[in-house]
Amino acid sequence: MTDNWVAVCPLAAVKSGEMTLEDAAGNEIVLASVDGQVYAFDAICTHALGYLDQGDLEGHEVRCPLHEGRFDIRTGAVLGGEPQEPIAVYPIRIDEDTVYVAMPED
User: What is the pTM of this model?
Assistant: First the structure.
């Protein structure tokens, strides 16, 4: 399996301490900026299909708006709540003020 680098959005669209729902080659992902670092992760909670961009971001922790499942946006690890499965996280790179996300290819 290889990675496919996809241009997602301008870096200016990712505000510090906020999340934005984006499309990466047909996949819904969330971009979040924390302490000057941009992170990319799946948009949907693994527990009850809540959109994580509609939840809360506190530091490197995102909280699902449905049942308050919590995930680490750096690793995808479950930090609490009802989810049993981690969320997927994706490598990012910034080139000429554009955010690129590495999406897996089969």
Answer: 0.94
Read off φ and ψ for residue 45, nearest 5 degrees. Answer: -60, 140
Give 63's DSSP letter.
E
Q: Residue 94: phi, psi to the nearest 5?
A: -115, 125
* DSSP assignment string, 64-101: -TTT--EEETTT--EEESS--SPPPEE-EEEETTEEEE
Helices vs. strands in the chain: H and E counts, helices first:
0, 11
Tokens read off for 90? 């994706």
Give the span between the Cα atoms of 58 and 6, in whole angstroms.
27
CATH of domain 3-104: 2.102.10.10
Angle formed at CA 87 by CA 82 and CA 92, multiple of 5 degrees: 150
Please check whether residue 57 is in contact with residue 66, taking contact to mean a CB–CB distance below 8 angstroms: no
Q: What pLDDT digit, counting tens, does each position of 76-104 carry? A: 999 999 999 999 999 999 999 999 999 98
